[in-house]
Every structure is written in structure tokens, then in C-alpha cells.
Amino acid sequence: MTQRAGHALVAALLAVLVALLLSARTAAAAERTLVQLAEEVSIGLLEEVNGLFARDWQERTGERVRFRLAVLPAQRQARALAAGLTPDFASARALTDAASPAEAAVYATTIVFLARTARGREARDWGDLLAPQVRVLAADPRRSDVGRWSYLAAWSWALEAAGGDREAALARVRALYRKAELLRSVTPATARDFLRRGRQDVLLWYESEAHELAGRDSRAAVRTPPVSLRVETAPLVPAGDGDGDALRHAYLELLDGPLGREAAARHHFRGAAAAETAELPALRLATVEEHLGGWQRVEEEHFAPGGLLERVLAR
């Protein structure tokens, strides 16, 4: 398939998605629909919160609420927005360049080490992953959201460890990714397959999913490095019509209230306050906005052709 044909196929698929999701706007007056675009890592939390909100809203107003939830990587969400889709909720990265202001929910996760061997359990910091005997598995930053977040988390550590020296940070990240085995594709079963059949010691993965797996699989252990990156995949709400805003904001109020906090804790997400994440190890969370200059700068410096990621992965 040519590059032009590939772009045409993506455009056609996005057009179908736009049509399907926007058809939700024709719901009867006694039923409202909220359209959500979300990354894979937040699906479990959102499905639980959606059910809680639908019941709460109907009890309070008599009005039924349905959710149209589409699981899309952030880059594809951004393309859908550019194609004209106007969802009620989307992920932080998808809304980076949006003209409308957005109100963020307060929950996030981070990148940790999911260990499956005794050697992997000994890795407590990013620098420990550079030891020759530690076998590391990571998602390819060019192919998945968890790959990008993992790469940026490693970069945040390296930049701090190097005292802000970018070339020294680059050398650390290159050393890590030169020894790591990269996953070309990521599925919902990736982390489970790593635990069952993996050959490596450590997988760079989302904290929320890593703790859920560790609670069910005795082979799994979670190692939290002292510094990582705040992964903001919880929903944001773009500005919209006034009537729709009331429903969206009511949803965010529930998400930020006691019911939402309890659900977030069950799914091992971090809240804005330390008390909300007491069951999770403390660490310093860097953010894209405050520590890496924002998503536009990150895209230009790291992921654009000729950017730092190409230098990291160059053989």
C-alpha cells in the first residue's frame, strides 16, 4: 500500500468513526449520549465511572445517559478531532492543539517496572535497568502510546540525572533503548503475555495496569522508580454548547467526587492529593507541561523526523 493510499484509508476510517459517533446526537429527548475517546489504559476506570454516573444521573433527573466509548491512541484521537469529530471527552494529548479550552480530570498514572523474575525485582531505579544482566522489554515509542510515555518517562529521569545536560541525558536513554527489546505491537494482553511467556526481566508499563496484574499473578512485582512521568490519560472535556456543558461538568464532578475517587483507587490511579494515592509508593512525577516544555515542543524535539527519538534508536 502506498503512503497516499494509507492516508486515504485512515481518513476514510476516521470519517466512518465520525459518522457513527455523531449519530449518537439523534437520541431521544429522554436519553442523552456522551461521546468519549479514550486510550486503552483508562478503559477499566471509565467503564466503571460511566456506569456510576448513568445511575446517579437518572436517579437525580429521570434522564437516561448512554456512553459511546471509542478506544483510540491519542494520535488517532487528534486526527479524528481534525476530521471534525466533536466528542464530549478526549485524552489530554489529543486536545493539545485544540482551539477550545479544556477542563482536565484529576486522575493519572505513570510508568513503572513490571518485573517477572528475581533479577527484575532488584531493579529499583532507571539506572538499574542499564545493568548488563537485566533484560528489559519496552513498547516501541514509534508505534504505541505506552511506548511514547515510557520513552518520555526515561527521558525525564535521564534529564534530571544529568543535571539538565541534554547530551548526557541522550546518552543514558540511548544506552537503555539499545539494550531493550522493543515491542512492535501492543495489545490488551501484552503485559499478561510478558508474565506468562516473556524472556525478559522487566517490562516498562503503566502503573495502574501493573498493580492490577500484580494483585492477580504471583509472578508479577511492581517496582516504582524514584522519578517518572505523569501519564495523563484521564478524560478532558472540550468546551462546547451550554446545554452539553452541564452534563459534561456533572460527569467530571462525579469523577472528582467520592465515587470517582473510590473507583480511581480500585483501578490504581493517582489523584491530585497525596492522600488519594496513599496505597501507591511515593515518587516525583515530572509532567510534560512543566518539565518537558509542553506537547508541541515534545513532538518537535523528540518525535518529528530527525528528532531525538531517531538518535536514541539509531543503530
What does this structure look like?
Residues 1-29 form the signal peptide. This is Substrate-binding domain-containing protein. Keywords: Periplasm, Signal, Transport. GO terms for molecular function: molecular carrier activity. The structure is a single chain. The protein has helices spanning 3-22, 43-61, 74-82, 118-121, 145-161, 166-179, 190-197, 207-214, 242-255, 258-266, 288-291, 295-303, 308-313, and strands at 31-38, 64-71, 102-104, 111-115, 136-139, 181-183, 202-206, 221-223, 227-229, 236-238, 284-286. The strands form four sheets. The protein has a five-stranded mixed sheet with strand order 6-5-7-4-8, with helices on both faces. Strands 1-2 form a two-stranded parallel ribbon. A two-stranded antiparallel sheet has the order 3-10. The chain has 13 helices and eleven strands.
Which tags fit this structure?
11 strands; five-stranded mixed beta sheet; 45% helix; alpha/beta; Substrate-binding domain-containing protein; signal; transport; globular; 315 residues; Thiosulph/SO4-bd; periplasm; D-Maltodextrin-Binding Protein, domain 2
